[in-house]
Design brief:
- By secondary structure, the chain is α/β, with parallel strands linked by helices.
- It has two domains: 161 residues, Glycogen Phosphorylase B (Rossmann fold); 172 residues, Rossmann fold.
- The chain is 41% helix and 17% strand.
- The protein contains 16 helices and 13 strands.
- Strands 3-2-1-4-5-6-7 form a seven-stranded parallel sheet. It has a six-stranded parallel sheet with strand order 10-9-8-11-12-13.
- Strand 1, helix 1 and strand 2 form a beta-alpha-beta unit.
- Helix 3 runs antiparallel to helix 4 and helix 10 crosses helix 14.
- The longest helix is centred in the first third of the chain and has 17 residues.
Length: 398
């Protein structure tokens, strides 16, 4: 008999968390699992990438509460007051002070969801998959019917808005907590030691076979550039660190090197990065290519892959870059050392532009280092067969 599993997340934006889910769904045997993706909104470049046979549903009430969820409570209270809705404004003010005292917003979530019924479908397993959005954890725990419930953490809890008071209250109700890296798990258990016995490492899914197959299906670089191509893939945001790479390229160009830098991805920092590119006069050498559902041709064709992130949970784009044999440079964020063996399968650097510059120069000038890294990457096994089997075992236990 099939196990019914629901995965809940915000949307299907082109991002690492969403890609990790899609990769896992591809690996899960369809004869064993009846899968539902439940999203807050119908949005994202990966919507058309959801595997056939997966049911897709949306929380129809999200548009009514989205604004309240994404702004401070005092702003919401003021908005109600301006509209003459004194009672609602007063309720929000009370909830604001309660949230300040308790240092978490679960009572606010209860208020805005009070007239939304519990979802009628019953599942074997319900997964709060979205990452750092407390609302999804609350929704899974209080509005989804299932025999067992899993919290999945895709981020470094010490770097991103993680509310330990909310987690102490809600996470202890989950049957299992998955964290996508060993270091990430250690940080969670150190912060919430009482959750240690139900917390387990579960790396993101990457299929080397599928990545390499898609690399030859799409189109990569089209500018006919004959120099060194450096590639970075990821959402354009401060946490991904692309801003640090722009002055690095400026220094490389100043030294007379024939090199260009390409970024696949889009995000809130695009305008800022465009201005930074102009300020360094790199319009002809630094390219923001936008989001790509299939970035793998670029990964296959680049000369050096750089992951400049300030923090990650388990960086899926780094894992995907490892599917090819192009030399890799990565900042040493949470989980990076679990993927890259320094000096053997890549170079790990601190969050420092000078170190990144030096690492690039080493790869360009040290033939033995470059050949060693390429050879070791060719032998790497990035497939997640063991993780697939582990999920099957957990599902059967549940």
């Amino acid at each position: 008999m099939k196990k019914s599993i629901l995965f809940m997340l915000i949307n299907m934006n082109v991002g690492g968390t969403e890609k990790a889910l899609l990769n896992m769904l591809e690996e899960m045997p369809k004869d064993k699992f009846d899968i539902t993706i439940f999203m807050l909104e119908e949005y994202g470049g990966f919507l058309n990438s959801i595997p056939s046979g997966v049911r897709v549903e949306y929380f129809k009430g999200y548009n009514n509460i989205k604004k309240m969820l994404n702004r401070p409570l005092q702003v919401t209270a003021l908005d109600f007051l301006k509209k003459g809705n004194i009672i609602k404004a007063l309720i929000i003010v009370i909830l604001y002070f309660i949230s300040k005292i308790k240092k978490e917003r679960s009572l606010f979530y209860k208020y805005i969801l009070w007239n939304y019924p519990v979802e009628k479908n019953q599942y074997d397993i319900a997964v709060a998959y979205a990452g750092p959005m407390d609302f999804i954890s609350y929704f899974i725990m209080n509005k989804i019917q299932s025999e067992k419930k899993i919290q999945w953490i895709h981020f470094d809890i010490t770097k991103i808005g993680f509310n330990r008071y909310f987690a102490m209250k809600i996470y202890k109700k989950f049957d299992q907590i998955f964290v996508v890296s060993k270091e990430g798990k250690t940080k969670l258990v150190n912060m919430l030691p009482k959750l240690g016995y139900r917390t387990e490492e579960f790396p993101n899914f990457v299929s080397k076979e599928l990545v390499k197959k898609r690399a030859v299906e799409g189109v990569g670089f089209e500018d006919e550039f004959k120099g060194v191509r450096i590639l970075t893939v990821g959402r354009l945001s401060k946490e991904k660190g692309q801003d640090m790479t722009i002055p690095v390229l400026a220094k490389l160009k100043k030294d007379g090197l024939n090199v260009r830098w390409y970024c696949v991805g889009d995000g809130s920092a695009r305008n800022e990065y465009e201005q930074l590119i102009v300020s360094y006069k790199l319009q002809k050498d630094y390219f923001l290519l936008g989001a790509r559902a299939n970035p793998y041709p670029y990964m296959k064709q680049c000369d050096i892959y750089v992951q400049p992130s300030r923090h990650e949970g388990y960086c899926i784009t780094l894992a995907e870059a490892r599917c090819f044999d192009n030399p890799i440079i990565s900042t040493n964020f949470t989980g990076a050392a679990e993927q890259i063996i320094n000096e053997e399968t890549g170079l790990l650097v601190s969050l420092d532009s000078d170190q990144m510059y030096d690492a690039i120069i080493r790869l360009l000038t040290d033939d033995n280092l470059r050949k060693r890294i390429k050879k070791n990457l060719q032998k790497e096994n990035v497939n997640n067969v063991l993780e697939t089997e582990k999920f099957n075992e957990i599902a059967n236990i549940f």
